[in-house]
Amino acid sequence: MLRKEDFIYFGKFTKPHGTKGEIGIAGEGFLLGDDCDFVACDIDGILVPFFIEESRTKNSDTIIVKLERLNDAESVRFLTNRATYIPREWVDEDEHFTWNYFVGFEAEDEEAGTIGEVIAVDDSTINTLFVVERDGEEILIPASEEMITNIDHEARIITFNLPEGLINI
């Protein structure tokens, strides 16, 4: 069984490409190396591997993949807009990370302690925000290097020094 803590967010499946079962993946700054033979997708809370037969670059942030046993546009359509993950071991930790790398990390504040899990990144405005789920509610935290005091890649914890009252807004 694949454990989510062993994976990092890679990107999202886009729409089917062509008629032969190819689909796009809009990535988040990582390249799929030669040893990358699958991506995982969260389906009903379980990471499911999808093995890659072929891949090619479409543009600077999108690749087109042909997945094993999915041979037409209809068979890959259910993957559209689903998040993809790759094993942590395939990514060099010194590599530049995008904010989406932190999806799935536990967010904590130096003073307040545990805040919740980073479930998304909102980059629809000029100020990028982490969307953190806390007790069933969403809290928005600025994605700012100045506020981040520690990143524990192994434990998947991002620690902030947030202005007083920010998480109670």
Topology of helices and strands:
Blueprint: E1 7-17, E2 22-27, E3 38-43, E4 46-59, E5 62-67, H1 73-77, E6 83-87, E7 106-109, E8 113-122, E9 129-134, E10 137-142, E11 148-152, E12 157-160
Parallel strand pairs: 7-12
Antiparallel strand pairs: 1-2, 1-6, 2-5, 3-4, 3-6, 4-5, 7-8, 8-9, 9-10, 11-12
**First-last Cα distance:** 39 Å
Overall mean pLDDT score? 85
Structural domain count: 2
Helix count from the secondary structure assignment: 1
Total beta strand runs: 12
Description:
The protein has one helix spanning 73-77; strands at residues 7-17, 22-27, 38-43, 46-59, 62-67, 83-87, 106-109, 113-122, 129-134, 137-142, 148-152, 157-160. Strands 1-2-5-4-3-6 form a 6-stranded antiparallel beta barrel. A 6-stranded mixed beta sheet has the order 10-9-8-7-12-11, with no helix packed on it. The chain folds into 2 domains: 4-90, Elongation Factor Tu (Ef-tu), domain 3 (Beta Barrel); 99-168, Roll (SH3 type barrels), CATH 2.30.30.240. The protein is built from 1 helix and 12 strands; from the N terminus they run E-E-E-E-E-H-E-E-E-E-E-E-E. The mean pLDDT is 85. The longest helix is centred in the middle third of the chain and has 5 residues, at 73-77. Helix content is 3%, strand content 49%. The protein is mainly beta. The chain starts with 6 loop residues before the first strand and ends in a 9-residue tail after the last strand.
